[in-house]
Write a structure and sequence with these properties.
With 244 residues, the protein is mainly alpha-helical. It folds into 2 domains: 146 residues, no CATH class; 75 residues, no CATH class. Helices cover 75% and strands 2% of the residues. It is built from 9 helices and 2 strands.
Length: 244
């Protein structure tokens, strides 16, 4: 929900998806080319600033979306810094700190580039771009259906919580745990029923195996692509200069 809201509300809503994808791709390639922690940190910072200041994505939204993958990244880095000894215990390995720092910063730079794309580009625009790139229709349909099922799942969960709250199902932590367990057990049935209803609705509208969306028009796409290539070239120049 948060990602979708940010994509529709950002300043770059009218920018061609190809331009945003080119800049994100340049950021990913630059992150793989760069080798020093300083250059990787600079690349991550530039991608974040472009998203926050250029696209004007709300910083609270950005941090909220960043926290989950960042927590996974930090946990992974901590496990890389320890090793099991002959006594069966776990011991820190300080010698791996430089390598882990490079890995963490490279992952952060790639993550920042991807967030710049997903937080500024709604899914219909991404699907249209992928269709132009000859991605198989089956994969695109699965992406669209999975996207839609997230909203179905959220709606079913919210309705279940509202119904249980009206019956005092969350009065005290013991009742709250019991209500949550009952609701989780019923979610599969509700989502299955709503998915079947979606299939019936699609069949009634002449669904023939491919989901189509109204294409958007971007009259300044060439200019925007050129600007994205120029900005991406700056990131690549930083990475190549660092490697050389």
């Amino acid at each position: 929900m948060r990602i979708d809201t940010a994509a529709y509300a950002c300043r770059w809503r009218g920018v061609a998806p190809s331009a945003k994808a080119l800049f994100a791709l340049a950021g990913i390639v630059a992150a793989w080319v760069a080798v020093s922690p300083g250059a990787l940190a600079l690349l991550a910072l530039l991608s974040m600033l472009v998203t926050l200041l250029g696209a004007r994505v709300a910083w609270r939204t950005y941090i909220g979306v960043l926290l989950a993958p960042l927590g996974f990244l930090l946990l992974s880095c901590l496990t890389m810094l320890v090793s099991s000894g002959a006594d069966g215990g776990w011991h820190p390995v300080p010698a791996l700190l430089p390598r882990v720092a490079v890995t963490a910063l490279r992952s952060l730079a790639v993550l920042a580039a991807l967030l710049g794309l997903v937080l500024t580009t709604p899914l219909p625009d991404l699907l249209a771009l992928l269709r132009r790139l000859r991605v198989p229709e089956l994969l695109l349909d699965l992406m669209a259906l999975s996207y839609r099922m997230l909203f179905v799942l959220r709606q079913a969960w919210d309705e279940g919580v509202t119904a249980q709250s009206a019956r005092l199902g969350y009065r005290g932590w013991r009742h709250a745990w019991r209500s949550t367990g009952l609701l989780a057990g019923q979610m599969a049935v509700q989502v299955w029923q709503r998915a079947a209803a979606l299939q019936m609705a699609a069949d009634a509208r002449g669904y023939q195996g491919s989901l189509r969306f109204l294409p958007a028009d971007y009259p300044r796409a060439r200019r925007q692509n050129a600007c994205a290539l120029l900005a991406g070239a700056v990131l690549l120049a930083i990475a190549v200069g660092d490697r050389l």
